[in-house]
Amino acid sequence: MSVLRPQDQLPGLNAATILLVGKEDALLQRLADSMLREDCASSLKVHLAHSLPLPSDVNRPRIDLIVFVINLHSKYSLQNVEESLRHVDATFFLGKVGFLVTGAGRDSHCSVHRSTVLKLARAYRSPLLFCDLEVEGFRVSMAQRLVRMLQVCAGHVPGVSALSLLSLLRSSENPCLEDL
Amino acid sequence: MDSYDIPESTSSRLKDHFIGATPLQKRLESVRKLTSFVPPSPQRKIPQCSQLQEDVDPQKVAFLLHKQWTLYSLTPLYKFSYTNLKEYSKFLSAFIVAEKQKGLAVEVGEDLNIKVIFSTLLGMKGTQRDPDAFLVQILSKSHLPSENREGKVLWTGWFCCIFGDSLLETVSEDFTCLPLFLANGAETNTALIGTWFQKTFDCHFSPLAINAFNLSWMAAMWTACKMDHYVATTEFLWSVPCGPQSLDISYAIHSEDAKALWDSVHKAPGEVTQEEVDLFMDCLCSHFHRHFKIHLSATRLVRVSTSVASAHTNGKIKILCHKYLIGVLAYLTELAIFQIE
Questions:
Q1: How far apart are the C-alpha atoms of A172 and B266, rounded to whole Å?
Q2: What residues form DSSP beta bridges with B235?
Q3: What ipTM goes with this model?
Q4: Angle at B218 between CA B168 and CA B190, to 5 degrees
Q5: C-alpha angle A88/A90/A94, rounded to 5°?
Q6: Cα distance from A156 to chain B (closest Cα, Å)?
Q7: What are the backbone dihedrals phi and psi of residue A179, each rounded to the nearest 5 degrees, phi first?
Q8: Number of A–B residue contacts, CB under 8 Å
């Protein structure tokens, strides 16, 4: 059982790799396409996976950011993400993991309550992003946001590290006393 | 997003924060509270027989059972008075007749002799604070005087509020809060009644849809109800989102087996927690997966049917058991209040 560790490999020159984990094939594919269309100084690589652990026989570059995609319409996607989280090393959660939730707009189709994913993100101290991935405009702006986050996590933005980005993102919500 | 980081063990609502606040402040606080919590709080009571139910005559409410009701949520009514019910009946009859005559074609034989009756339903409330429920019926007047005067009921609708404390606190004196509206009968009549109420009392109706999350709560709560004998099997309907046509999966189990499963999952007496509901549904889904290799958790629950009541995601319910009527309505009132806010 391989566990993903952030510093397992040396970074590639000017390369930034993001791993999208989720059961929603079509949505992940579209999000990946939107990200690759973004203008970016670094060379972007987007990896898609249904779940972790990843097969160990494949030669892959160092992963800079993992985004877990949860669809509120399907409890299965939440269970899948919870299972996959076990295969990520604790040091990844210092800014290099994010949760992306889709489907919150259509409340009548929701099987998972928003507070469940809120609690999950809070438990893992990672940023939680909401986006309706089916809508083109929202998907493009979320792709832009993820590309910027990825650049920070890969160390391509001078002066900002993944950890400082994490604390910046968190202070925009009301800080919980237990986090301090 | 919210500053209330409530530990799991707290089950009470945050009433003690709002002493001395104005209605507007209370409303803002309650909206923030509801958007941050699971709308049923993590623990919730199994519908018990309420003490007020003793006032309800089983025969009087028998007509509410075994009928399919379409649910709407209703904002508070402005300057509604229970003493003016006769006048409301007259105005509403006149309005309906006028609207029907406005139509382009009047069908031959269509009975325009209709009568509208407003009446209060005693005992349909959770606490003393809840406003009285009232009933609106459209009856067709019989042409022949020798037949019984009452005529055929064409349409029934009733307004109620069961345990609506969270809404009652935040609303001023002139408003009557009856957030749950149930209608049975032709859709055109529902629309007419709705228009009249909206014009007269400055309120707003909106259809109450029930999402899969709330349906699974209802399934768990109704399975938990103790019944002497079960009149129907427990049935779930799941909709699989795929391709041009959606598939439906129907899953039926004996009610006794469902109750046995619930009893093995359930720990604390008198309360239902989110974990127990999740575990109950997961057991059913994993049993299905073992036999058919289909993950029901990836599909959408659209209908739950038990011996107590049945509910569909588009807001249609049918209540089968007189004993737990108040309990079912209490949960639906909560959903309606959540939708209004």
A1: 39
A2: B252, B305
A3: 0.81
A4: 60
A5: 110
A6: 30
A7: -75, -25
A8: 50
